[in-house]
Write a structure and sequence with these properties.
By secondary structure, the chain is α/β, with parallel strands linked by helices. It is built from 7 helices and 13 strands. The protein is globular, with a radius of gyration of 18 Å.
């Protein structure tokens, strides 16, 4: 049986399309550590972090592996476009590696184009032994949301319009973090952790491993307090479009505002890069949804 990562790499090499005008975001405004000191639970047994470039859709892809020191890379839109909204981005990669540009920096570039601060979270991979694969990344995501919220005034963002966006395993992480905000997965360490780690909205793009028969998995307990969500998936995705369908139905039953787009073709791992398939239009649909939710206000309405 083909593994998750095998499906993911097949998808990357099989899709023949171009980046929408540019492949990479500009340099970040700043990059900062998620954790000010020791990273919770880390023992130093993971190999050194690595980065490599390999062929992929529309050009090369940057793959990051063995992350033990999570970071946030902050990309700001121009002052003229800035709406005050911000989104923390969780790249995919099966909780084994991170597709750092395809599902990270290129996403920040798009968000900047619609007036949103894009913040790429380099969370811990691969999955740690004897722990749920999402647990250390959940710690990183919870800390990231609170840390961004603590920097709202400094970075010129609205602390009530901070979202979480994830692809594939990053979509799984987004769902878990969006339903685990009432209790931290780590001991609070500073004033930033006194602020909420609840995302104000979530964007799940071909999220993985959320379906459990006719419901969502137990580690994603959707309630009426779950933030509003936008979901997009391709029907021919080998990583199961039911993952998005069951998440949407759970949100609907909980009366949480949600929008789901299922595309006939597109496979897995298409990111934002253009193709002949309608799935490449999901960023436009997501922008429309964000506007309809009141998330893309004018810059003079940030606070």
């Amino acid at each position: 049986m083909m593994t998750y990562l095998a499906h993911w790499f097949v998808a990357l090499t099989a899709l023949g399309f171009l980046v929408d005008g540019r492949a990479f975001a500009a340099d970040p405004m700043l990059t900062l550590d998620v954790w000010p000191g020791k990273v919770p639970g880390e023992t130093g047994q993971i190999a050194a972090e690595g980065s490599k470039t390999q062929p992929g859709p529309g050009g090369n892809i940057t793959i990051i592996s063995n992350v033990s020191k999570p970071t946030l890379a902050v990309y700001k839109p121009t002052k003229e476009k800035d709406t005050g909204a911000a989104v923390v981005i969780c790249p995919g990669g099966g909780y084994s590696i991170l597709a750092y540009d395809l599902e990270g920096t290129e996403v920040a570039d798009w968000l900047n184009s619609i007036g949103v601060t894009g913040i790429v979270l380099k969370y811990r991979v691969p999955a740690r032994p004897n722990l749920p694969r999402w647990e250390p990344p959940l710690q990183d995501a919870q800390r990231a949301i609170s840390l961004v919220r603590s920097k709202a005034t400094e970075w010129g963002i609205d602390p009530k319009r901070i979202g979480l966006l994830g692809f594939s395993a990053g979509g799984n992480l987004t769902a878990v973090a969006s339903t685990h905000f009432d209790k931290r997965a780590y001991e609070a360490i500073d004033d930033a952790d006194k602020l909420s780690c609840r995302p104000d909205f979530g964007v799940l793009i071909y999220p993985a491993w959320l379906e459990n028969g006719d419901s969502v998995v137990p580690e994603v307990p959707v309630t009426a307090q779950t933030p509003p969500m936008f979901l997009a998936h391709a029907n021919d995705d080998p990583i199961n479009a039911e993952s998005s369908v069951m998440m949407y139905l759970a949100l609907k039953r909980a009366k949480v505002p949600a929008e789901l787009h299922l595309f006939a073709k597109g496979g897995h791992g298409f990111g934002l890069r253009k193709s002949d398939h309608p799935c490449s239009e999901w960023p436009q649909r997501c922008e429309e949804w964000m506007k309809s939710q009141g998330l893309l206000k004018s810059s003079d309405a940030k606070h």
